[in-house]
Amino acid sequence: MRRLRWLAPALAATALVAAGCGGSDSGGGGSTTATKTPIKIGASLPLTGDFSEPGKAAQQGYRVWEKMVNGQGGLLGRKVQIVVRDDASDQNTVVADYNALISRQKVDMLLGTFSSLLNLPASTVAERNRKLYVEPAGGAPEIFTRGYKHIFFAQQATADHQGDVFADYILKLPPDQRPKTAAYPSLDDPFALPVLNGIREKFEKAGIKTVYRTKYANENTNFDSIANAVKAAKPDVLMHGATFADGVNFVRALDKVGFTPKYFFQTSAPSFADQYSKGVGVQNTEGTFYAVSWDAKAKTPGNDQFVKQFNAMYGAGEPAEDAADAFAAAQVMQAAVKAVGGIDDQTKLADWIRGHSVNTILGPLKWDKTGAPQGQFLIGQWQNGKSQIVLPKSAATSQTIVQKTPGA
Hints:
seven-stranded mixed beta sheet, Rossmann fold
């Protein structure tokens, strides 16, 4: 997702320059036929570095799509071959990688990388080359303010709207249950901050007082002081902007200082399934809310087949959300290619996507003219050691919503 790091202006400027050496090739999993060359699809993913966990999950999602499409006869009657490079979670490397994919490896199409930090510069390469660019995780609002014509985000909403459903739930609680105070610690991150700011604006407008607000650098690994400050502020609802490691470490710090709010919402980290519960301890997951794009139990078209193929390729268990998002991004690209009937004019592919809704394993997705999605995220909550979808009710896998027990 959705998860980002702080974006310095100097880095953003540097990333627009096609310089430096690309990351290593990670192979292409498709096969060829004797009579037709495959459609080569290039992507650079953070297989190492800060974003390596979601980056590897995204690669799995792309590989599952590749396997399933080829098993159905390919795309336009040709096999597909995904070529993945490792950008090592680095802005300059991701730019070099996408330039290399286009100019040296001669890929026919592109798929996006993980995080807005990397998708911001990578999409500039795609735009300059008039290549369709569907990204699986990069919801920073600034991505869609540049007037680009070829970029699309394959989730339901940009970061500033991913907490809307949760905020509306809290504001509709009976007066005696509704929080009166809130705290907002966050990673200094152009994904996490907009999520929290979107919720905070709704809360403050409704009279929920902000009693604590801070942001920290991505290098921060000790959260004791922030946890103590939160405990001193005693918020009824605690909103934490996080990726994975900082999300886990912050919950550990809260446990250490002995503070539990009535309501706890955290970005990104709780969607990492067993990795999250093992990191924070199952007992500390109870009642935690998070925004999520997908659920393994969803009855969306093709979801069962995706989970089945994933388990066949990577072992039994629930796929990570980032794998599902990558699969959905490939589905969007696939739908456009099938509808247009070719890949030579990728501006035409982009125009088709802007005018249509696409059914994916995340559900139907649609976009405005900027490539920003126009939908609502699901809200998950950890209950009895398992992650459940609780909002909206039409998509819920659990019909109850639990509250944390302060002091527990």
